[in-house]
Amino acid sequence: MKIRFMKGIIVMALAFSAAGAVQAADDFPRKPVRIIVPVPPGGLIDSITRLVGGRMAEKLGQTVIVENRDGAGSLVGTRFVKSQPADGYTLLSTTTNAMTASVAIDSNAGYDTLKDFTGVGPMIRAPWLMVVGNNQRIKTVAEFIARAKARPEEVSFSSGGEGGGSHLAASAFLHRAGLNVLHVPYKGNGPARADVIANRVTMTFAAGGAADARSGVLTPLGFTSTARLAAFPDIPTIAEQGLPNYSDYVWFAMFAPARTPKDAIQRLSDTMQRSTREFRERIEKDGNELIPMSPDEFNEFVKREMVEMAKLIANMGLKKRD
Question: 96-105 and 295-316 helices cross at what angle (nearest 10)?
């Protein structure tokens, strides 16, 4: 009799536990969700996060707060998210380039991408656009290479920070072209771009680049895409200007602290992807792409990117920072 009674208690406990888990999943989120952008305002990652975050708030029925926490490249904001509870209420919006490069190039990154984070999923994939200041009198990639070889002391490039996506994208191009010019790092891609506009720095790689391609404030030399973009058919790829098979993309994505409940991750992922789809026309008009992945697919993608990034950094001869 006692055994039956105990079995009954266990069955009831399991039933209540399962019911509680389902209710918790159904109720998520029950308070505002915060998305940390680990770079200053003004760049594409900041603007796309605010755009998507606004639609996510409507669908989740909760406030979504986008907060910039920059410093040390993207390390300050990334470490902050790592330190937060794994409950789905604090997310990181960054690039896969940053998440794979930092641990490969910085001995004291302060986190392990694969152990400390789990993917929510990608928002967009964008090619880089190589741009120079309008007063540089450079119109093609070939002209840039010729000047950098003839007068390297007069040529420089800016990036959003040492070891960041724009730094590695530009460095990979320069390595492939056999060039060695001065690197000028900034705290974010916004100020890096501003000094190219002011002609204080020669060149930068702009994420996405649609605004620069249309505005006329900078001279576009080429996209890092595998083929010309339908949105910008008159701008050639870098590959067709003497660097065959060259391509590079930046992925804008969201991550959560490791061990965040899977149902919370799935809810956030579904909501994020529904939100980005509502901007498909605008995203593609800017030369970017929607490439949806499930959280599991995205985690596998990040693992592969970690391997490729480590190879790239080794091939370029970049040393780890202490």
Answer: 50
